[in-house]
Sequence to fold (319 residues):
Amino acid sequence: MDLKPKRTEIIPLDEKGLDRAAKTLRRGGLVAFPTETVYGLGADATDDTATASIFAAKGRPQFNPLIVHFADADALRRHVEVTPLAQRLADRFWPGPVTLVLKRRPDSKLSRLVSAGLDTVAVRMPAHGGARDLLRLTDRPIAAPSANASGRLSPTEAAHVAASLDGRVDLILDGGPCRVGVESTVLDATGDAPILLRPGGLAVEAVEELTGKPVIHSLHDETAPKSPGMLLSHYAPGLPVRLDARTAAEGEAHLGFGPIAGTVSLSPDGTLLEAAANLFRLLHELDDPSRFTGIAVAPVPETGLGLAINDRLRRAAAR
Ligand code: AMP
Ligand code: MG
Fold:
């Protein structure tokens, strides 16, 4: 029997293509689509399983927070706190190649996986007409990292996406080459002054011209001294976390997996995709000192998405 994965269809970004892509996204599927920066690997950002499948397709051994794309500002306001600084940046540079990291609203329905457990979300309004049509038609926020397998270059043409992710995404929308060709500039806009988290398609000088001040650069260096601006620090629950726990001690919450039921389970039938989809939400739920003294976590296999799950669990336990 031929077990080769199905080839992914590349379809033109026209009315028919957009309609199919929007339906695929609303069903929880993965669609690669062009933006002005690079091609994104999109999934419904309110769907835990769809978001987890982004990481499965990319083969990333880590959960990095994902940029969530919106068609308009009103939809965005339901999910993040728009600071006065963010408003100024948005008025000047959106739609366009700049991403703003903002505080997540407590009532946001975005998957916690898009924030990799952090209390912030990176949001962007792309300038690409096709991307905006897709966002409007889908009528959901779309989480999208660059549409390449982990360790490969960011794709700026549909053929690059196919070369790297063929058979691992449901659909590739071909809208021609990307105009900007590099990723978006990522700015932390939670405070009074923007902090550069990643240089990209929008020049830092343009931001400095708007604010009249030099932009603070955050070094993406985990050994650098932690400042309040180091938003890339990893999520860890307040309660102590204990790994490879087949049983819980008295007072501990038990996060189960497969045959180990626990207080709640990452995945009762031992599916790694389901465990990834539930990971951050359940950790947040159990991180409650009024109910528990700690969180014991059942063993999770070190294969496929289990690598990323265990990476996060080890960081959570290392604190
Ligand atoms: P990519 O996945 O290639 O589109 O890259 C996304 C970039 O945005 C990475 O550099 C992430 O670390 C950054 N990012 C996304 N969400 C956040 C967040 N909540 N806080 C800080 N950085 C973020
Ligand atoms: Mg990338």
User: Anything to note?
Assistant: The longest strand covers residues 39-44.
